[in-house]
Amino acid sequence: MFNGLALPLLVLLVLLAMPCAVLADALAGDSLTGDSLAGDALAVQDGEAFAFSWQVTQCGGTLRTEWRESGGKIVASDEVVFGSAGVQRYEILRPGYGHDLQVQREARGFAIRTRTGQGREHADFVAIDSRAVLAGPMLVTYAIDKLAELRAGAVLQIRYLIPERAKVIVLQLRVVAAASGDRAEVEVRAASPWLRPFVPQTVMRFAADGRFVGMTGPLLPLGGPIESPASLHGELQARNRRVSSRCNILGLP
Question: 133: which strand partners?
């Protein structure tokens, strides 16, 4: 869920070569397969409040999120197709701003195509090795799969794609607070101390039974005028989880 617009490009030129946690087992899991998780989110930008409802669904190796304003109109969505090597294809749509972004994994990296609200288009390429890379809502599903290890004190690292900046950075996950009843807060921050002041921090909250219940951090929708959109940072709460034996990426019955 980092949209990356707050990351200075020059700082991100410092590429990291730190060892990462092995992701294949987590990426192959089906912790949300056949499920629909939904909730609300609130952000405040320059004194203006933005309220959204959101829903994430998973069908096998595809994750999709939809964000709607109070009237029900979709203001942002993303879809990531992944496998044992991490993200294979990723798409972000923000129709209110005319902003589209498509990522395709190729043999030596990610091909990224971006269209902005001003009608401009440009292409980027991020060279990577064979290690797994996560993107978008995969961050939450990874934390769910690894929650027992995190609660036991493990500090995990993942490589995460920020497509708006055409960069892959290393993120660190660790439990920073454990409340009564074994509830937990998982902090996500840049692994490099040099990058931490510039990477939006995320804190995910989990109930005692491992349910994802909320998050503080960057949100997928944008705010502000169309000519100068800005990333939003806010509070997200999970309200409802439905389980179905049928897999329908556009919504569960």
Answer: 86
Phi first, then psi, for residue 30 (nearest 5°) are -125, 45
Do 222 and 207 meet the contact criterion of CB atoms below 8 Å apart?
no
Half-sphere exposure of 135 (CA within 13 A, CB side): 34
Distance CA 179, CA 188 (A): 18
What 3-state DSSP class applies to 100?
A: strand
Quick one: what percent of the chain has pLDDT higher than 70? 79
3-state SS string for 107-119 = CCEEEEEEECCCC
> Is the model's pLDDT at 154 over the cut of 90?
yes
Planar angle of CA 124, 126, 128, nearest 5 degrees:
165
Average pLDDT for 145-150: 92
**Whole-number Å distance between alpha carbons of 181 and 230:** 38
Token pair for residue 143?
A: 């934390």
Q: What CA–CA distance (Å, rounded) separates 105 from 112? A: 9
Residue 137's pLDDT is what?
A: 87
Q: Strands, E, within the chain: which ranges?
A: 35-45, 48-59, 62-68, 74-83, 86-94, 99-106, 109-115, 121-127, 156-162, 167-178, 184-190, 202-206, 212-223, 230-243
How much is the CA Rg of the chain, to the nearest whole Å? Answer: 17
Please list, in sequence order, all residues whose beta carbon lies within 8 angstroms of the beta carbon of residue 124, skipping any fewer than 6 positions away. 111, 112, 114, 166
At residue 121, the 3 state secondary structure works out as strand
For the question of whether the overall pTM of this predicted structure is more than 0.70, the answer is: yes
Token pair listed for 100 = 């589209």
